[in-house]
Specification:
It contains 7 helices and 3 strands, in the order βαααββαααα. The protein is mainly alpha-helical. It has helices at residues 8-13, 19-26, 30-38, 57-71, 76-87, 93-127, 137-142, and strands at 5-6, 46-48, 53-54. The chain has a 3-stranded mixed beta sheet.
């Protein structure tokens, strides 16, 4: 990473923004911006002479990209792959489609698992009297016991 040591005012004159403005422009929290930089998703972040981070419009676009990908449930590794493809103008859209299709499969599996959990819980709730007695099929199931 190239260190650019500018004074704060000079940085703003050159089109850089600070982390607060990057947060407002991208909708990504300060904590997450720092995290994305730390794990290498946000690269080439310049610094002022006082070591404050400086961001460009491209950084803001990258942050928005990451935020949208997170909203769609992509993992950090998938986002790393997608960012790499997004930044590579010679990329094959087939590579991007493959990642998205794999993610759809993962989401479908999770949906099936959640539906199964929902059905199980509905049945347990249906079987529970929900009265003042201590017998509870929900707790029995969680404890690995069969309801009496």
């Amino acid at each position: 990473m190239k260190r650019v040591l500018l004074q704060h005012a000079e940085a703003f004159e050159n089109g850089f923004i600070d982390i607060g403005l990057a947060t407002k422009a991208s909708g990504v929290s300060v904590k997450m911006i720092r995290h994305y930089e730390e794990i290498g998703l946000l690269k080439n972040v310049a610094r002022t002479a006082a070591n404050y981070r400086l961001y460009t419009e491209q950084h803001v676009h990258t942050l928005r990209f990451i935020k949208r990908a997170r909203t769609l449930g992509f993992s950090m590794e998938e986002i790393r792959e997608l960012l790499s493809l997004w930044q590579d103008r010679r990329r094959s859209s087939a590579s991007v489609k493959k990642i998205a299709a794999r993610h759809i499969d993962e989401l479908q599996t999770k949906i099936s698992e959640l539906q199964s959990m929902t059905n199980t819980l509905k049945e347990l709730v249906r079987c529970c009297a929900g009265d003042s007695r201590p017998n509870c099929p929900i707790l029995d199931d969680l404890a690995g016991r069969k309801a009496a």
